[in-house]
Design brief:
This protein is mainly alpha-helical. It contains eight helices and no strands.
Amino acid sequence: MSGYIAKPNALFWILGIVFLLWNLMGCGIYLMDVIMSDAAYADAYGEKMAAARDFYPVWATAAYAIAVWGGLVAAILFLLRKRLSVTLFILSLLAALICFIPSFSSEILRDAGGPTFWVMPLVVVVLGVVEVLFSRKQAAAGLLR
C-alpha cells in the first residue's frame, strides 16, 4: 500500500522523551563542568576532584562536548522522526567512550573519582547503547525518515 506512513507507538514517544531529558541533563552537567570556577567546583565535587580537573585533557573535554550536544540533537531529531538521529546517537556514544578514557587510564583521575568513579560512565554507555539500538530498530521499522 503506497503512501502508508507508519505511526509510532507509546514506547517510541516515552523513550524519545527519556532520551531528550537524559541528554538535556548531560548538557547541563557539561556546562556546569566547564563553566564552574575552581572554588565552586571544589564545593560541588570536593577538593580532590577540583585538583584533578587540570589532568583531564582538552581532547577528552572536546569528546565530552560532542557526546552531550550530539546526543541532544539526536534526541530532538528522533522525536522529529528523522533517520539522522541514528547516526548522531552513534557519534554521541563513540564520543562518550572517548571522553571516559582519561578517567580509566589516569590514576589521578580514578583516585579523585573514588571507588565508584566507574558508575556514571557505565550508565552513560548503557543508555547510549539503548539509544543506538532503539533508534536503529525504529529506522528499520520505517518510523524514521
